[in-house]
Amino acid sequence: MAIDFDWNDIPLILALARSGSMSAAGRELGVDGSTISRRIAAAEKALNLRLFSRDTTRWQLTEAGQVFVRYGEGVYGSVQSMLLASTREAESLAGPVRLSAIDFLFDHWLVRHLPAFAERHPEMEVQLMADNQNISFTRREADFALRLAQPVDDAAVLMRRLGDIGWAVYGAPRFAGVPREAWGRQPWIAHEEAKAHLPEMRWMARLEPAPRIALRVNSLSTMVHACRAGAGLALLPCIVGGDEALVRLSDRAEVFRELWLLSHRDAGAIGRFKVVAAWLAQVHEDSRDRMCT
Hints:
single chain, about 290 residues, D-Maltodextrin-Binding Protein, domain 2, 7-stranded mixed beta sheet, two-stranded antiparallel sheet, about 25% strand, WH_DNA-bd_sf, LysR_subst-bd, LysR family transcriptional regulator
């Protein structure tokens, strides 16, 4: 087994076999003829084979060299095809892109922007995965993720802080006009107790008088629907402010949370991923006022 053989010498051997001349092979490959000669000698030594013999006019393949070239052309052609296909894939604006995010970011923000994106990039397939659990970019569980906190370390993750999302108090129309000092006396919709560490839950815990929790949910989108139905007041992302079934009671955002865009470190080298990353950043920029005020 010729473990010292340099596979980069294959195109040099093939070029010399075609031309029969060191100088001609050098011109074809754009290298000096002496470099060709030195690399051929190194290849023969590594293979422990004589690939070429030289007569008075040209370099001729030996029988072993003929076998090498026959297989070498196939190997080199396959490598070229592999590189070409890989380059095309990296530059292509077609194919699937998987995006993970908490459900409300899809339901109340991103989906409204998808038709315009699909019109510009009809060959791309966006896959939305409603999930807020930690994912592994090392294992390629998603291509992008939107998260409301800076993530834990992942050697393969690239993190970008897009900005902030504000939270304000909302209720059904029957709660319109309830003053701030009376909020604590109203029924409230809250997250499950396991999420007591969230900034919006800590804000609610500081209300005086302490609010009566009428309903607990484990989905922010469910909280929005329950608030619309009149189940109680809720601290919701400001981006739901255009909902006609909700009345905003806060005159300012009560809580802010960071929005992070995560991707695999290799995403910047793949065309469709670069397009999606730029699109997400632009959509957030265009929505900044709605998200924070």
